[in-house]
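Q: Start with the shorter request: fold the first protein.
A: Done. Sequence, then structure:
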Amino acid sequence: MTRGPLDGLAADVVACRACPRLVAWREQVAVERRAAYRDEVYWGRPIPGFGDPTASIVVLGLAPAAHGANRTGRVFTGDRSGDFLVAAMHRVGLANQPTSSHVGDGLALDGVWITAAVKCAPPANAPTPGERDACGPFLHRELDALRPQVVVCLGAFGYEAACRHHDVRPRPRFGHGLEVAVPGGPTLVCSFHPSQQNTFTGRLTGLMLDDVLRRAVALARRTPAPRPAGAPAPP
């Protein structure tokens, strides 16, 4: 069977060892493991995107979590950020179930693809600019293959990665609910990242994320929809 561009990209992502610090960290975490997962075999490699290969919406995050995707081998799977995101995707009809616990759990996405700007788990969840740039070609290939109508940018890091790919200039300041229409390309729709720091403090609520995802669905279908409450006007 001939591999499609996303299959080939996934194989290249998984084989990558370009960034020594990230390679060392992801493999160290996979050996030391968290106590709650001490009996599990960690993935410990880069994480390709996941979802519907015909997606009109891409959800773009920062990087895999050390004990989430770096453990399970699937983006936004096995951690609370993934729980929060996938539950919202299920509520708006983009996922067949509200949970994302492990590969083979039955999760299927409809019309959406989820990925991260950096494919390896970074120490302190903070890739260096060099690591970000080294991963950039993977994201470029991913977005070029998918050609989505909407990119949901989770956090400023994901937004900046999308802006770099689409050469957005000037770049409007990131904010929850911000929309940027790329001429000849997708609309970027921004949300605070579903990190525990944001969801536990109420900076990002389920309703807020639902509103952003519903807006993305409406934009992908080219049908009118209300803007999220308090969203800045498009530039």
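Q: Next, the second protein, separately.
A: Sequence, then structure:
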Amino acid sequence: MATTISILRSRLRVDLDEPAADRWSDDDLDRHIQHAIRDINRVVPREMKASGLTIADPASRELDVSSLTDLIHVVAVEYPVGLYPRRLRHFETWGSTLSLLTDTMPAAGAGVCVYYTTQHTVDSEGSTLPAYLEDVALVGAAGYAMLDYLAANENRVTIGGDHTADQLRVFANDRLMQFRQDLTALKHERRQAIRTGELWTEDER
């Protein structure tokens, strides 16, 4: 079954030991989940590949990439497509235009494959997050939710049940510390993966 925002919300309520909506509405928890996902997108965005792009102008090295939804960053460009080893080219981007920095002019209609990153999304239809990132997002969302609740109830000595404000603040800070540590580890892992990969070749054949 596909993970949806309602499934993540239910899991978050369990993590917060709050099955009812006494402290947080559904909209509140959804907002905190999306907050955590935005943080994840800055570190581990979704990796995508677009293989249906073509050079339209026979006298141009430019490619329109406006069709790449929620584009964050172009990582690599393959041209020509389908050779081994892959021909990954130097390029530059400006706005929705990608320019191949090749010595030879690409042929009109030539296929180009673009490797890029985009935003992870979670909504009522499903999630693009892999399971391990869902777990990371819920840790961050729990911390954000608890801090938000404490801010709205800062003048109360006893916040709820047997828990004091100090106890809940410790909970929030622990979750956010773990979230930041997870993001730092993920950022390091991604950098290592990029370093060990080949981002371009100079062979023009």
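Q: Describe the second briefly.
A: The two ends are 46 Å apart (CA to CA). The longest strand covers residues 46-54.
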